[in-house]
């Protein structure tokens, strides 16, 4: 099994917040433990350790789930817009594709860091951590 619950408490200075608070902090791209330190060093690169509270943010997985969440949200938000535009405006297929494809791409790229932060906050709240090489064996 690739993920384990933490064997010891996270950081004794902080009480683990509720799931909603952790996800909200992640969506704001700040540390899910303290809500103050930056969660990312770049666009999608997770800061391994929070500079404010010392929480190991790199230990919380967000591998494939963040892109799945992003695709799910984009498709459910953009499909009604496309259907409505098609019903009201009735553009040619090539024009609809010319407008929709860059729009979908930009929306996906723009939403991905927020989804990744939310997934990391969710993993933190549930205590889901990556298994380290030392635990394997």
Topology:
Layout: E1 3-4, H1 19-27, H2 65-88, H3 93-126, E2 129-130, H4 133-136
Antiparallel strand pairs: 1-2
Helix pairs in contact: 1-3, 2-3
Explain briefly what this protein structure is.
Helix content is 52%, strand content 3%. With 137 residues, the chain is mainly α.
Notes on the structure:
- With 137 residues, the protein is an all-alpha fold.
- The chain has one domain (14-133).
- Helix content is 52%, strand content 3%.
- The chain has four helices and two strands.
- The protein has helices at 19-27, 65-88, 93-126, 133-136; strands at residues 3-4, 129-130.
- Helix 1 (19-27) packs across helix 3 and helix 2 packs antiparallel against helix 3.
- The longest helix has 34 residues, at 93-126.
- Mean pLDDT is 86; it is low at 1-9.
């Amino acid at each position: 099994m690739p993920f384990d619950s933490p064997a010891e408490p996270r950081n004794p200075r902080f009480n683990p917040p509720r799931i909603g608070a952790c996800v909200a902090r992640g969506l704001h791209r700040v540390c899910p433990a303290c809500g103050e330190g930056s969660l990312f060093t770049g666009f999608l690169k997770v800061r391994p350790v929070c500079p404010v509270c010392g929480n190991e943010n790199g230990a919380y997985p967000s591998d494939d789930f963040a892109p799945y969440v992003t695709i799910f949200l984009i498709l459910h938000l953009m499909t009604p817009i496309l259907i409505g535009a098609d019903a009201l405006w009735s553009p040619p297929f090539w024009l609809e594709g010319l407008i929709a494809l860059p729009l979908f791409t930009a929306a996906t790229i723009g939403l991905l860091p927020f989804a990744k932060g939310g997934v990391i906050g969710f993993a933190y709240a549930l205590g889901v951590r990556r298994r380290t090489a030392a635990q394997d064996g």
